[in-house]
Amino acid sequence: MNGKKNVPRHTYDLRTKIALLLGANILIFLGNSILYESFLTLLCLIVIMSNGYVKSSFKYILFFTFSVAVETIIANLEIHFLVNLILFVVAIIRKFLPCIIIGKWILSSTSSSLAVATLQKMRLPKDALIMISVIFRCFPTIRDEWSHINMAMRTRGISFSFYNLLHRPVTTIEYFFVPLFVSVIEIGDELSQSAIVRGLDAPVIKTSRHIIKMKIGDYMILTSLLAVICMVIFMRLWGYHL
Question: Nearest Cα to 120, choosing from 14, 221, 11, 42?
Answer without folding.
Answer: 14
